[in-house]
From TrEMBL:
Record organism: Companilactobacillus alimentarius DSM 20249
Function: Catalyzes the reversible isomerization-deamination of glucosamine 6-phosphate (GlcN6P) to form fructose 6-phosphate (Fru6P) and ammonium ion.
UniProt protein name: Glucosamine-6-phosphate deaminase
Matching PROSITE patterns: GLC_GALNAC_ISOMERASE
Lineage, opening ranks: Bacteria, Bacillati, Bacillota, Bacilli, Lactobacillales
Ranges in coiled-coil conformation: none
Protein encoded by which gene: nagB
Family statement: Belongs to the glucosamine/galactosamine-6-phosphate isomerase family. NagB subfamily.
């Protein structure tokens, strides 16, 4: 893995943007996108840039089950607010969390991923090493699935909701196998709360205990981390 150390999230956004820009100049067509606070500075760089995304397709990692796209806590809403309303893409896909039929929703999303092979995937990481919403124990070769969120993830996400009981307990998430098919991956991690997960991702064994450790088997991964997130690396 290629590791880029940055001073802060602003610089992290700029470093990630450089890669996005260069890859777009080289003709990539499909970006895999993530939610959470980590990619926000990258999305700011993208929206402030003069890059044109109107010929690009985006495929997002995940969505809460039970939230409609117009729900302010949904990942549809997050993406619209941070990126798509300012920089429209040709097509922007996010799993359909409003579809209670998990089988149909996940199959439909797998088809979208298959038809739009991801050139560059942006990832954040959960405190427990999850990527997308693939919590510890997720199959490292999985496709899109309905997942139960762990207590630690629910707790981490409570900050975005008025009440902990409003945090959805389930999500539809692209699987780790699908993430691994992306041609290139950038993982963004900032802050001390991510230090253990980053150490396990880079130095630990490849294990379902740390879903992001699967990235060790990918040929083109760049980690953009600040000093705190990198503080437990060997
Ligand atoms: N499903 C998302 C992940 O894709 C994201 O990586 C993680 C970390 O979020 P943050 O960047 O806010 O720490 O949050 C959620 O669980």
């Amino acid at each position: 893995m290629n590791i880029i150390k940055v001073n802060d999230t602003q610089m992290g956004g700029k470093e990630a943007f450089k890669i996005v820009k260069a890859d777009m100049e080289n003709g990539i067509k499909v970006l895999g996108l993530a939610t959470g606070s980590s990619p926000i500075t990258l999305y700011k760089e993208m929206t402030n840039s003069d890059l044109d995304f109107s010929n690009m397709t985006s495929v997002n990692l995940d969505e809460y089950v039970g939230l409609k796209p117009d729900n302010e806590q949904s990942y549809h809403y997050f993406m619209k607010e941070h990126l798509f309303s300012k920089k429209p893409f040709k097509n922007s896909y996010v799993p359909d969390g409003s579809n209670p039929d998990a089988e149909a929703a996940t199959k439909a999303y797998d088809k979208i991923i298959e038809e739009n092979p991801i050139d560059l995937q942006i990832l954040g990481i959960g405190r427990n090493g999850h990527i997308g919403f693939n919590e510890p124990g997720s199959p490292l070769d999985g496709t899109t699935r309905k997942v139960s969120l762990t207590e630690s993830t629910i707790e981490a996400n409570t900050r975005f909701f008025e009440d902990e009981k409003d945090v959805p307990r389930f999500a539809y998430s692209m699987g780790i196998g699908s993430i691994m098919k992306a041609k290139k991956i950038i993982l963004l991690a900032y802050g001390e709360a991510k230090a253990d997960a980053i150490a396990a991702t880079v130095n630990g064994p490849v294990t379902t205990d740390c879903p992001a450790s699967a990235l060790q088997n990918h040929p083109d991964v760049t980690l953009i981390v600040d000093d705190a997130a990198a503080s437990k690396l060997n």
